[in-house]
Amino acid sequence: MSVRGVDHVDLAVSDVERSLAFYLGMLGPLGLAVEARIQTNRETEEVVYLGFGQDHVPGAQPETRLGLRKADGGEHSYYGVGVEHLAFGVEGDEEVDETYQRCLGMDARIHCPPEEEPDLPGYYAFFVFDPDGIRIEVCHHSDQVRKQWDAGEHLEVKPHRLAPRSPSSPRLG
């Protein structure tokens, strides 16, 4: 037996409907949709699962779904314990740019505008913060970058110059 991939990730958010509007506004045009609303085992909330509608292929890696559930309280701290960022891969650089434009249209807080990673040619991405301050990346890997990863030819990459760590100031953008 083996692990086939990440099945789902649930984010605890301050306002599920606000987060739902953000993620659907950002990625809905690329196929992200609500796939399920499930009452949790705590029976005090529901979790909303988002996905891209991929069919299950027996034996293959499952589609990773994103769950949104109401947090019990608190707030996310950039570079605090927990999720540092969540990345969504898209088909091409144009989709990265279009998604960036949608985020600007939603007045989302941009961390880094789209650019090719200087130390990894063929990797193009931008970063934005969701309504709770969780950093989200939208990226595209060229065919060459994918082939290198698939072949185990992992390049040594210098730390990203546009993502400074500042635990005392979660609002960097």
- The amount of helix comes to 10-25%
Question: How far is the N terminus from the C terminus?
Answer: 43 Å
CATH topology: 2,3-Dihydroxybiphenyl 1,2-Dioxygenase, domain 1
**Strands of the largest sheet, in order across it?**
1-4-3-2
CATH superfamily heading: 2,3-Dihydroxybiphenyl 1,2-Dioxygenase, domain 1
* Coarse shape: globular
How would you state the average pLDDT, rounded? 85
Topology order in helix (H) and strand (E) letters: EHEEEEHEEEH
Strand content: 25-35%
- The appropriate CATH architecture is Roll
CATH hierarchy, class: Alpha Beta
How many helices does DSSP assign? 3
Q: How many strand units?
A: 8
- Biggest sheet features: 4 strands, mixed
CA-atom Rg in angstroms: 17 Å
Any low-confidence stretches, pLDDT <50, length ≥5? 163-173
Q: Structural class, judged by helices and strands?
A: alpha/beta
- Number of structural domains: 1
Describe what this molecule looks like in 3D:
With 173 residues, the chain is α/β, with parallel strands linked by helices. It has one domain: 2,3-Dihydroxybiphenyl 1,2-Dioxygenase, domain 1, CATH 3.10.180. Helix content is 19%, strand content 30%. It is built from three helices and eight strands; from the N terminus they run βαββββαβββα. It has a four-stranded mixed β-sheet with strand order 1-4-3-2, with helices on one face. The protein has a four-stranded mixed β-sheet with strand order 5-8-7-6. β7 and β8 form a beta hairpin. The radius of gyration is 17 Å and the shape is globular. The termini are far apart. The C terminus is likely disordered.
